[in-house]
Amino acid sequence: MAGSGKAHMRPDGDRILEINDLTVEFNLGRGKVVKAVSGISLDLIRGETLAIVGESGCGKSTLGKAILQLPKPTSGSVNFLSKELTTMNKHDLREMRPAMQMIFQDPISSLDPRLPVSEVLAEPLRVWNRGNEVEINEKIDELLRAANLDPAVVRDRRSYEFSGGQCQRISIARALALDPTMIICDEPVSALDVSVQAQILNLLQDMKDRYGLTLIFISHDLAVVKAVSTRVMVMYLGKVCEVAPPDDVYLRTRHHYTKALVGSVPIPDPDRKISAGLMQGEPPSTIDPPSGCRFRTRCPAATEQCASEEPQLREVAVGHFVACHHPLEA
Amino acid sequence: MSKVLEVTDLSITFDTPRGNLRAVNDATITLDQGESIGVVGESGSGKTVLSRAIMGLLPGTATRSGSIKYMGKEISDLPEKELRELWGTGMAMIFQDPMTTLNPVRRIGAQLTESLTVRLKLSKKEAHEQAIELLRRVRIADPEGMMRKFPYQLSGGMRQRIMIAIAVSCKPELLFADEPTTALDVTVQAQVLELLSELRKEFNMAMILVTHDLGVVAGHTDKIAVMYAGDVVEMAPTRELFKNMKMPYTEALLKSIPRLETPTGTRLPVIEGRLPDPTKNEPGCPFANRCPYVADKCRAEKPPLKDTGTGHLYRCWFPIGGEK
Fold first, then answer.
1. Which residues does A185 contact at the CB level (< 8 Å), separation at least 6?
2. Where are the domains of chain A?
3. Sheet (strand A15-29) strand order
4. Which of A88, A193, A220, B42 could form a disulfide with A93 if both were Cys (CB 3.0 to 4.6 A apart)?
């Protein structure tokens, strides 16, 4: 986009989450404001996996956190399970928390190093009074087994005794403890080796099927989200570029920024060089983003119209939306 | 062509409370001038220890055997004082985390000119000019402005460019890049890899690129060494390796990479199990417990490194596609 618009919303679907014109800004003082997320709308249908893709600083993590009201967004609405979260008081919001969980990027630092694994998992269950100690113990074993960990071996160990991949399994088990409806996964495999990445991605898929979850999967790597997502949203500098089913994003790319992202994925084939030439330089500052289309300063197809007029999302094929004045040919 | 690096039968063990930990076993690697090698493996495979050992950056708990020759000269027993002369001008290193390898309280200019004045004995003015040129070379848009900045003002990709500029500032013969792009976004990764390839050609530098991602080394190296549990398990020219893979481990590593072509919702092939305990010296092939083609012989006897005669080496009793 780097534009706005709501053409991609699906009012007829079984939506568990609906976000309208969400804006998150951080005031730096002296009149400087970071515009991290600027007027994003999206919805989430039960059972789907929405991937949010973009570079560092595009606002994808901020968006994920704003959905959970961490912190509350500057403006816009977040409607989760038919309840408006942005205007909720603290107590009511807390009641909603078990249904929406998060998995973080760094698996080691997101676990308390002083607690044995059993306590890491028992804590949420106790806080929310999910049964007596016997039931909680059974639940912990069930969660660990579901995450492909042997309860007898791992229960009494602490996070520093585990590898990154194992810590991420424990984080996933913890996120599942309270039977959530939706889990936001913020770069869950970026810190892991390629071989371990595949294991965690498969585990997330299994969990989704087994517990009927709806996922938001945040990542900078299109190849990773390709394997797990049912819908992909590409973000740039706080705006949306393209929304489409995963195959359309790769095979029928319409946005110039998406094309650059696709071209940057390393391909394990010496005869096919990755093409950095597609994208040079760094994204502009979010304090003073470009007018019109925010991608125009790095876009090969930019014209005067792009500077004066912000592109709006429009449907270019069934389920495929792009915010660009001069989209690529399909 | 002259050999920049000749490593012969290099073994590294660490003395730990749990016993001797074998990090690298009998590694043999040679590198010509201007040649680049990718060292690939999972966490714990010994790839980082190998490159640090060559650099002379091992901690005191390490024991080393074997020989390391740099430009024909044995350097494994050099005292640190002489080794220091090599660092920067002969061998330089780029580390994984660009956020922590720059000094947070010194300006970029000071950090960049330091090696130029100390190693190349340039005057302050010459060093400043040279630094500006280097920044331009790594495609920093405003080099003068950059000289006055502090690391916290820069993005990860920018910092990695600065690290590269510092590493190549004294025109080393041999550049180590230890997971140089792992902490970066894919778009920035593509730029940094391309920059490294360009500089390598321009300065005719040899390069050792350490990574866990076969996709990263595919387009940017002349040959590849795959490491597993401290062993070099396969080594071949890059094209030959991808075309004619012999080791089941290399194949498994390649298959586990998520690709754009993967249909949505398919399960990714994974390497089940874990690396063997490096403090135990168990018989047989270290990959046997995770190998889909395992046979009795693999569990009993460790396969030797076989040379096909074409520069393709592998360590397997039952290589993919049979023996040549």
1. A102, A103, A204, A215, A216, A217, A218
2. 1-81+182-189+216-330
3. A32-45, A15-29, A75-80, A83-84
4. A88
**A247 in B contact zone (CB under 8 Å):** yes
For residues B245 and B188, give the distance between their C-alpha atoms in angstroms, rounded to a whole number. 29
pLDDT tens-digit series, residues A130-163: 999 999 999 999 999 999 899 998 999 999 888 8
Report A:189-228 residues touching B (Cβ under 8 A). Answer: 193-199, 201-202, 205, 220-224, 226-228
> Is A264 part of the contact surface with chain B (CB cutoff 8 Å)?
yes
pLDDT tens track for B168-227? 999 999 999 998 888 788 888 888 898 899 999 999 999 999 999 898 899 899 999 999
Q: How many Å apart are CA B312 and CA A154, to the nearest integer?
A: 41
Which segments in chain B show pLDDT lower than 70?
1, 324
Contact flag A269-B271 (C-beta cutoff 8 Å): no
* Closest alpha carbon to A220 in B261, B219, B184: B184
Contact B190 A275 (CB under 8 A): yes
The fold adopted by the segment(s) A1-81+182-189+216-330 is Rossmann fold (3.40.50)
Asked if A197 lies within 8 A of B256 by C-beta distance, the reply is: yes
Give the global pTM: 0.87
Please judge whether A266 and B219 are an interchain contact, meaning their C-beta atoms are less than 8 angstroms apart: yes
ipTM of the complex: 0.80
Residues of B in Cβ contact (< 8 Å) with A235: none
Q: How many CB pairs under 8 A join A and B?
A: 145
Residue A258 CA to residue A301 CA, distance in Å, equals: 13
